[in-house]
Amino acid sequence: MVQHFDLILKGGIALTPAGRVRADIGVANGRIKAIGDLGVATGTEIVDATHLTILPGLIDTQVHFREPGLDHKEDLETGTRGAALGGITAIFEMPNTKPTTTSAAAFNDKLDRARGRTWVDHAFFIGAAAENADKLAELEQLPGCAGIKVFMGSSTGSLLVADDSTLGRVLGHGRRRVAIHAEDEPRLIERRPIAEAAGHPGAHPEWRDVETALKATTRAVRLAEATGRRVHILHVTTEEEMEFLADHKDLITVETTPQHLTLAAPECYDRLGTYAQMNPPIRDARHRDALWRAVASGVVDVLGSDHAPHTREEKDRPYPDSPSGMTGVQTLVPLMLDHVHAGRLTLERLVDLLASGPARIYNIAGKGRIAVGYDADFTLVDLNAARTISNDQIASRSGWTPFDGMKVTGWPMATIIRGRIVMYDGQLFGPPTGQPVRFTDTIPGA
Ligand code: DOR
Question: In order of start, what are the domains of the chain with their CATH numbers?
Answer without folding.
Answer: 4-54+371-428 (2.30.40.10), 57-362 (3.20.20.140)
